[in-house]
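User: Run a structure prediction on this.
Assistant: Running it now.
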Amino acid sequence: MIHVRAAVSLAALSLALPLLAACGEDEPKLVIYNAQHEQLLDEIAPAFEEASGIEVELRHGKDLELSNQLVQEGDASDADVFLTENSPAMSQVEQAGLFEELPAEILEVIPEQYRPRSGLWTGFVARSTVLVYNTDLVDPSELPGSILDLADPEWAGRISFSPTGADFQAIVAAILELEGEDATRAWLEGIEENGTVYDGNNVVLEAVDAGESEVGIVYHYYWERDRVEGGDLSDNSEQYYFTDQDPGAFLSVSGAGILESSDMKDEAREFMEFLVGEEGQQILADSYALEYPLNPAVTLEKGVKPFAELEPPVVNVSDLDSEAVVDLMTEVGFL
């Protein structure tokens, strides 16, 4: 009788083992809606998984594509964490009331000017607006003192930019916040008259390098990355940084926040701590991205202009209004 019972127990156990294994395989993953560069998260996510033992599922998209999706999904969203390339998309989700307030130990790592007053999300890296210029066509003494000067008649036919992406729209959002609606509309109308529109910042870089355009509005890392990769699109150009808190010196902040509807808030907080902590920020600094880490304990080197030498305007990241920017740019004819 004992042998029969033992056999039954062993049979039951053998049946249960595959079920237990299956349960292990089906453990929930931390879902990150990611609008930052895929390659960058492909470096961060595995390092976090190894450090924490938490599995991550990345769902990639564009800034406003994913922010609009989150607003539509509301409390039913699968997302636990939202990462953006630029901050206006974060503001949209914040205004929809979808973020969980972050704990002080996460917020206090990042300087106050790079996160919203609400404490509902934080910046983690930034990029500087720059003007790239063709060194054969433009003498440095000719370069404008302000990005707003590019709307003046003297720049007719000489400038280029890519208005449909979130990068340029974040710059417009900063000008709107700093200069107001009328001045921003006038600037957009001026550069629309003066400029050539390209589809993508690397295409702007290429156009300037080839002499099709004298100057182009981009972020610093496009030029810096190309130089690291051989300079095919930057051999004939240099970067010009605006100074004195000009709107053209705007620092666009990539944001990160936890969704209030998340079922994995503890794991999401662990990810956020890793992202803004020294280990995660050093991975960012060492990566291909060439973006500025926002944890002051970590420095981007690699020959890029030092973060401390930038002179950005003071902009509250919560106040950058993506909807107003889209309306203005549509009115002018860019979208």
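Residues 1-24 have pLDDT under 50 and may be disordered.
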